[in-house]
Design a protein that fits this description.
The protein has 154 residues and is of the alpha+beta class. The protein has a single domain, classed as Glutaredoxin. The chain contains 5 helices and 9 strands; from the N terminus they run E-E-E-H-H-E-H-E-H-E-E-E-E-H. It has a 7-stranded mixed sheet with strand order 2-1-5-4-3-8-9, with helices on one face. Strand 1 and strand 2 form a beta hairpin. The radius of gyration is 14 Å and the shape is globular.
């Protein structure tokens, strides 16, 4: 599925670090950012999470929660958050149902080897549950700032 601005955000319900839970219905009536990343505690994913953490207060002031989603377990997320002092919500999608609904569980290739993996992608969703902006094949440098700038326009 290739989601685009104007599409309704797919429903999700994910376990989070610290035995919590996050879902589309729990965010109803609020804009939010959901970003997908390949793996906890890898260089690019750590940098991206640190960047979103750096701007958390500004997102919070806008009333826009940021949720990071990967295939990693809630336990892995907890360790990742603790190690790097992350201050954002991380959702666990071990069966990739949410990733598939958002069209980010894709075929990848490395050194000629093909495999399924998480595309680094971000979705900005408005208070009405509609996708307002999509970033695919994200380059980490400057990404959190770009998402923040878009969130300010909601």
């Amino acid at each position: 599925m290739d989601l685009k601005p104007g599409d309704k955000a797919p429903a999700f319900k994910l376990a989070t670090d610290g035995d919590g839970e996050i879902s589309l219905s729990s965010l109803k009536g609020r804009p939010f950012v959901v970003y997908f990343y390949p793996k906890d505690d890898t260089s690019g994913c750590t940098k991206e999470a640190l960047d979103f953490t750096k701007f958390r207060k500004k997102f919070q002031d806008l009333g826009v929660p940021v949720i990071g989603v990967s295939k990693d377990s809630a336990t892995s997320h907890h360790k990742f958050k603790t190690k790097h002092k992350l201050n954002i919500t991380l959702g666990s999608d071990p069966e990739t149902k949410t990733a598939q609904a958002y069209g980010v569980w894709v075929e990848k290739s490395m050194y000629g080897h093909r495999y399924m993996g998480m595309e680094r992608a971000t979705f900005l969703v408005d208070a009405g549950g509609k996708i307002r902006q999509v970033w695919r094949k994200v380059k980490v440098a400057g990404h959190a700032e770009a998402v923040l700038a878009a969130a300010k326009l909601l």
